[in-house]
Amino acid sequence: INYQLVHFVASYGKASQIPPSTCPEVSFVGRSNVGKSSIMNKIFNRKGLVKVSATPGKTANVNFFEADGVHFIDLPGYGFAKRSKAERDRWAKLIGDFFNLERSFNLVVSLVDIRHDPSALDHQMIEFLQEGGYPFVVALTKADKLSRSQQGRQLATIRKQLDVAADDIIVTSSESGLGIDKLKARIEQACL
Ligand code: GTP
Ligand code: MG
User: Fold this and answer.
1) Count of structural domains, the chain
2) Do residues 28 and 64 lie in contact, with contact meaning Cβ atoms separated by under 8 Å?
3) Which atom of ligand 1 lies at the shortest distance from residue 53's CA?
């Protein structure tokens, strides 16, 4: 995949607005502020293409990007405590509707912060992917905030808690670039 060709395609507030898949698709899910937009920018090697914010809840729509005939989809983050019930309901409907669409789900990248135990919503999201048979990989984010030994410990703990295969969990950092090549290889594999 030639990421130099990456560009923004469109933003959708409702799943019903999203046109049918025309190419392989990789989507990014995870709680608000976990680093979805940052990891996409790192994959693309383009700093400001996907909007990143220190304020959780920045991405409220489903945003489509395209690189070399592959769609990359930034999904809105879940579990932002300060969000109103109406906003949380809107999120749940948007994500639920999105995954119910008849699409080419080549790979779902499910992001979890390496520093903490997965939240109830992380568990729900990953169980949903497992039960629905969606091809997915877990990216543990912000590894640069931990030492190497802490990373190893958290990887083992989180992997056990989420019950995912060793091959399906990658330690990453959008800051240092750790694990990004591994994730890209996984994306290539899923899309070709
Ligand atoms: P929403 O759009 O609100 O759902 O958030 P998001 O998941 O897209 O997170 P985003 O990429 O906007 O990052 C949130 C914050 O975490 C920003 O301040 C980023 O700079 C920071 N961040 C993201 N990834 C990393 C990382 O690997 N290391 C460090 N140290 N900070 C990171
Ligand atoms: Mg975002």
Assistant:
1) 1
2) no
3) 12
Q: Which residues sit with their C-beta closer than 6 Å to ligand 1?
A: 30, 32-38, 52-54, 56-59, 77, 141-142, 144-145, 173-175
Give me the residues paired with residue 111 across strands: 30, 139
Weakly modelled stretches of the chain, pLDDT under 50: none
Side-chain-side CA neighbours of 40 within 13 Å: the count stands at 31
Other C-beta atoms lying within 10 Å of the C-beta of residue 23: 12
Complex-level ipTM beyond the 0.95 threshold = yes
* Six token digits for residue 85: 């019930």
Termini Cα distance of the chain = 9
Domain with 177 in it: what CATH number? Answer: 3.40.50.300
What atom of ligand 1 comes closest to residue 40's alpha carbon? 11
Atom number in ligand 1 closest to CA 32: 4
Write the CA distances from 94 to 125, 129, 130, integer angstroms: 14, 16, 19
pLDDT tens digits, 139-151? 999 999 999 999 9
The tokens for 165 are: 């295969």
Range of the domain at 53: 3-191
